[in-house]
Specification:
It comes from Haloferax volcanii (strain ATCC 29605 / DSM 3757 / JCM 8879 / NBRC 14742 / NCIMB 2012 / VKM B-1768 / DS2). Residues 15-73, 75-132 form the CBS domain. Keywords: CBS domain. By secondary structure, this protein is an alpha/beta fold. It folds into two domains: 3-124, CBS-domain (Roll), CATH 3.10.580; 129-256, Conserved hypothetical protein from pyrococcus furiosus pfu- 392566-001, ParB domain. It has helices at 3-7, 28-36, 88-98, 118-128, 130-145, 170-181, 203-211, 233-240, and strands at residues 43-47, 53-58, 102-106, 112-117, 150-157, 161-162, 167-169, 188-193, 196-201, 216-224, 250-252. The protein has a five-stranded mixed β-sheet with strand order 5-10-8-9-6, with helices on both faces. The chain has a two-stranded antiparallel sheet with strand order 1-2. It has a two-stranded antiparallel ribbon with strand order 3-4. A hairpin with a 5-residue loop joins strand 1 (43-47) and strand 2. It is elongated, with a radius of gyration of 23 Å. The chain starts with a helix and ends in a 13-residue tail after the last strand.
Length: 265
């Protein structure tokens, strides 16, 4: 992807859809209960019966407000919105300049289509690095095995992955868990060879997903036909290392390293 193409990435490619909303006639007490349940954005867009955006109600709007008050009387009406065709780059600028953590995405009729957050902006940048990794992995496999490699994108089962890396680091696992929980993790890179799926890039993400009981993850899948290649070098490496599943990957806790000291609690 060229720099010009990167600048053309649109908001609707990364915005969050299926956003939870509330109507203007709802009682404040109902909104408080829903906010306690922990909506992702700390508030709710207010829409009419046809999903036209009317406002937003957040925790700050409900301070010292009685529960028997309608949402329309306390919601914020002066909103900054973006269009789905706006570039991610420009939307990120708006977020930065306004100090908002997210922006409603609306069409020309002000129908709510989704929300674009600073997390979505970060995710768009992270995922852009993946195509170059995929291409370099593909070229390496094609040179090594003198065969053509197909590339696609789909979800894979975390439990069926065969690792090619013996060790991951505990501190980095915590970072990957945060990314997964907030939708910031880039896809894995795997090689499909017959009935086996070899994990090439993303061991920390896959291990973090395993700890979070996430069964499936999005992956760039490089497909090698067993008819063209009997055994992959990656598969031999995994076999020699005794790696059959993610359960065989060792987690190295850097805090236990002999050169790292911990203060007494």
């Amino acid at each position: 992807m060229t720099p010009m193409e990167l600048d053309d990435v649109r908001v609707d490619a990364y915005m969050t859809t299926g956003v939870e909303t509330v109507g203007p006639d709802a009682w404040v007490t109902d909104v408080v209960d829903r906010l306690k349940a922990g909506p992702q954005y700390g508030g709710l867009p207010v829409v009419d019966d046809e999903d036209h955006l009317l406002g937003f109600v957040g925790a700050i709007d409900l301070l010292e407000v009685h529960g028997d008050v309608r949402v329309e009387s306390v919601m914020s009406r002066d909103l900054v919105v973006v269009r789905p065709e706006m570039t991610v780059k420009n939307a990120a600028r708006v977020i930065f300049r306004t100090g908002h953590q997210f922006l409603p995405v609306v069409d020309d009729d002000r129908v709510l289509l989704g929300l674009f957050s600073n997390g979505d902006a970060v995710r768009s940048q992270i995922e852009r690095t993946t195509p170059s990794k995929v291409q370099s992995t593909r070229e390496m496999l094609e040179r090594t095995h003198d065969t053509s490699i197909g590339v696609g994108e789909r979800e894979v089962e975390v439990g069926s992955l065969i690792p090619t890396q013996r060790e991951v680091y505990g501190d980095e696992l915590e970072g990957r868990k945060y990314e997964l929980q907030n939708g910031l993790a880039e896809p894995l890179i795997v090689v499909s060879h017959g009935s086996e799926t070899l994990l090439v890039d993303g061991h920390h993400r896959a291990m973090a997903a395993r700890r979070l009981d996430i069964d499936r993850m999005l992956a760039h899948v490089l497909t090698v036909s067993p008819e063209d290649v009997d055994e992959l070098g990656l598969r031999r490496m995994a076999r020699v290392g005794g790696l059959r599943s993610l359960a065989d990957v060792e987690v190295n806790d850097y805090l236990q390293h002999p050169l790292i000291e911990k203060t007494e609690q």
